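debug: dumping io for the single-chain case to check the tokenizer round-trip. Nothing else runs in this session.
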Amino acid sequence: MIVFDRASKRYPNGREGLSNASLRVEEGEMVFLTGRSGAGKSTVLKLIALLERPTRGTVVVGGKNTASLAPRHIPAFRRRIGIVFQDHKLLTERPVFDNVALPLVVAGTPLKEIDKRVRAALDQVGLLGKERALPLELSVGEQQRVGIARAVVSKPPLLIADEPTGNLDPDLAVEVMRLFKRFQEVGVTIVVATHDVHLVRELGLREIVLDHGHVQGADIDPLAGMIATR
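debug: decoded output
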């Protein structure tokens, strides 16, 4: 599903967000990216979502080499990726239904199909019945679940999340991670960037550790098989 082969990303200000990084995520796997702030976690997610292109090396997502993907194909590429943000990025003046429906509206999905998919996505995250509520009327945990519903409403095969539990208390953090795990159990590939190593290790899933843009404890050839990470 995802292969980084000696990928590097240097930003215009000269900062190297990722350096010679090799890693692999298998289809249907749930993986955590961990490391201190500035370690490169967000850069990895941006490269996966084609919000950035690698300066050197190769990033392949779903069989597509992101460095060579033509601009006209980028929207279709991104529609196959659900993105969950730490700060939700919800439209506060629009009800929950409209927030979740946004990716479908952009894709030109028929209205009848939008209604069915939005209600199904809200049901999956335990928010069915909250369609007309405004985001600010919800708790922080409920707002995050709206963001997750929006990310999965298009049924993408890949879901990425950037510090999705950073603003949540420990109980809500566990609830969100269990929700991700349920999506993984039905075949969705999930990559979660987080600093909460205690929660990661409690779940017992694979961890890819980043430090100053380097993948720690990994083989240098991702094509030789599963990367061995700590």
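debug: round-trip ok. The two ends are 20 Å apart (CA to CA).
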